[in-house]
Amino acid sequence: MAFEFLSNLDTTTAFLLLIIFILFVVSMKKVFSILLNAVWIVIAAIVFPVVMNRFFGFDIPIDRDSMFSFILLGLSVYFVYLVGKSIYRVLGIAEKAAKKVPVPHGEKKVKEKGEKEEPDKRDKKKEKELEEREKELQKKEQQIRFASAIQKKRRLGSWEKDYAELEESKEKAKPSSHITPLPVIEHKKKKKREED
User: CA-CA distances (angstroms) from residue 5 to 17, 19, 25, 132?
Assistant: First the structure.
């Protein structure tokens, strides 16, 4: 049998060997895709001077040294692209991991003062609500200031006059009895007279 050597290994070693095999297969797949892309870049670098000379009228030399320099230029640009892409991925993973780490209370205050984080949609709604409340409070404060300014301008004895006027209006409004007569409906009486 092909896997007889596995029977001699303990379970931990066999499990580690399986993980290493999977990682090897995945990494070889990635390496082969990179090598295939490199082959395409080499082909494109070789064809580039021919296309530029024939279709666009450039005078690029088509010798071994110029072809080699185009190949090196293409492969170096591809290598820089791969390095930048891998750094970008690593930074993205690090950012996700850093968001999960809780921030101590002392450092949180420094972060809030120094940097403003981008608020979520919920935070934006809360900010709008707070702004609306602040505007309402400012309007109420202006009304209170206006009322206090009016009261300061009045004379000291004016409140007594206002109170007396209020009492007089209450006395005039009081009916002499609590029973109010019903209104007379004349149109019914007219109908009775017309029938007679």
Answer: 12, 17, 20, 75
